[in-house]
Input
Amino acid sequence: GQQLNQSPQSMFIQEGEDVSMNCTSSSIFNTWLWYKQDPGEGPVLLIALYKAGELTSNGRLTTQFGITRKDSFLNISASIPSDVGIYFCAGQPKAAGNKLTFGGGTRVLVKP
Amino acid sequence: DAGITQSPRHKVTETGTPVTLRCHQTENHRYMYWYRQDPGHGLRLIHYSYGVKDTDKGEVSDGYSVSRSKTEDFLLTLESATSSQTSVYFCAISDQYGEAFFGQGTRLTVV
Output
């Protein structure tokens, strides 16, 4: 089946630092989505990407849909404590209608 | 918030018993999904639906069945629950553009 490889699996942040995570696939995706999940909640959509090469910003979030349609990154600038959570990338394969596949997630934690 | 309601939110059941989880939407979206989430595995697709009475299997469909008799309801049934089906189950909906919105989840424990 489709595979989305997300890295890093976990990371520690200090308030004010920039955070970066990425997702790669061996298959082409039609749409890329980034989600954030807080403990005990369902994932919440952050950003959706539809065009190859598209660079999109939403506040402190910046994300890009790779030109080959096989990768995407998410950057969070000037992190704050509420950025803690699990971030997931998700892709909709070109030939599979609206069937979404998720990456394994990046767990963002606060440095002790 | 997208209009998605999952019920029940929590359930404890015994091995071998049937269990049905319900997902109800008020957005009139065509696509509905059931995922399970387990530590170390992220979100894995169980089944999805692309219309009334139109369903297809996901990557972890063994032991699960689904039904969608109305646009707004998508039911997930565990015919005979096993301990390996202890998990958090999420329903999601999406329109033709692919942006999926999730429910609050159902925590199922099989003892």
In short: The mean pLDDT of chain A is 90.
